[in-house]
Amino acid sequence: MAFTQADLDAINQAIASGEKTVQFSDRSTTYRSIEELIAAAKIIADQLAAPRSKQILAYSEKGF
């Protein structure tokens, strides 16, 4: 699943307010504890910080 900055913001807002239910764009998730919310925030932050891979297409032609 691809996470967005909005997902991380929603998790961080829930952590700050002490709520365990997070409302995302079209769904809501209830976590069991604040520790679980913090773990989810770390996972999302790590995925957002990871460098994205690039594909490079090289084309070569011998001019005979």
Describe the protein in words.
It contains two helices and two strands. It has about 60 residues and is mainly α. The chain has one domain (about 5-50). The protein has a two-stranded antiparallel sheet with strand order 1-2. It is elongated, with a radius of gyration of 19 Å. The mean pLDDT is about 85.
Number of helices: 2
Main sheet attributes: strand count, strand direction, barrel closure = 2 strands, antiparallel
Tell me what portion of residues adopts beta-strand conformation.
5-15%
Structural class: mainly alpha
Q: How helix-rich are the residues, as a percent range?
A: 40-55%
Domain count: 1
Distance between the termini: 48 Å
Count of extended strands: 2
- Low-pLDDT segments: none
Q: In which order are the strands of the major sheet placed? A: 1-2
H/E element order: HEEH
Query: What is the radius of gyration?
Result: 19 Å
What is the mean predicted local confidence, pLDDT?
Answer: 87
* Global morphology: elongated
